[in-house]
Amino acid sequence: MNLLNLPASALCVLIGPPGSGKSTLAARYPDTWRVCLDFYRGLATGHEDDQSATPVAAEIQALLLDARLSRGLTTLVDSTNLLPHVRAGLIARARYWQRPVAAVLFDVPLDVAEAQNASRERVVPRHVVRELHQLLPTVDQLRAEGFGTVYLASEMPATANAPR
Ligand SMILES: Nc1ncnc2c1ncn2[C@@H]1O[C@H](COP(=O)(O)OP(=O)(O)O)[C@@H](O)[C@H]1O
Ligand SMILES: [Mg+2]
Questions:
Q1: 4 located within any domain
Q2: Cα separation, 65 vs 154, whole angstroms
Q3: What is the reported pLDDT for 132?
Q4: Alpha carbon distance 20, 120 (integer Å)
């Protein structure tokens, strides 16, 4: 299963604000391909949005990332990944293991992200969606950071990223 034609053994970084569709796309792939800070915060505390568990969630994510990349297993990072230093850390791990690195940029308009966020089970405060939406990088920026392939959610066929 490889809807995006990801290169083999790739690290694929999903980038987008809450409500932009990252987890919906990740759900089209096998569960084991996905690492996700929200999920690990939830495992640690019972609440995916409990930011006090971000450090432990980041440690779990880093361990699983290395475990998978070392084995050449395709891995999707289902977190916002909107901060350049977070993306740099992920690219560094892919480089260390000599794996190709791809990005999916969820370039959805703010009103769409807000509406989709409002329709979710766990609604993120609106101002947070707005602030994070402003951090969306450009394709050129992502290429300059070292992403070999950049997919745009806006250019994906509807069947690839719509909820099932
Ligand atoms: N392409 C799409 N078309 C319509 N609804 C979508 C699409 N992608 C996601 N959604 C809906 O938007 C909401 C947020 O999507 P989600 O994948 O949870 O976003 P994220 O993981 O980026 O926060 C969900 O209810 C999901 O069903
Ligand atoms: Mg999500």
A1: no
A2: 27
A3: 97
A4: 11
Locate 100 and state its tokens: 């190709």
Hey, which of 3, 24, 164 would you mutate to test ligand 1's pocket, going by the most ligand atoms within 8 Å of its Cβ? 24
Ligand 1 proximity of 18 Cβ (cutoff 6 Å): yes
Mean pLDDT by 10 residues, the chain (164 residues): 79 98 94 97 96 96 98 97 97 98 97 95 93 98 97 82 69
Cβ(41)–Cβ(47) below 8 Å: yes
Number of domain units in the chain: 1
To the nearest 10°, report the CA torsion of 75, 76, 78, 84.
Answer: 90
Quote the domain boundaries for residue 133. 11-156
115 in contact with ligand 1, CB cutoff 6 A: no
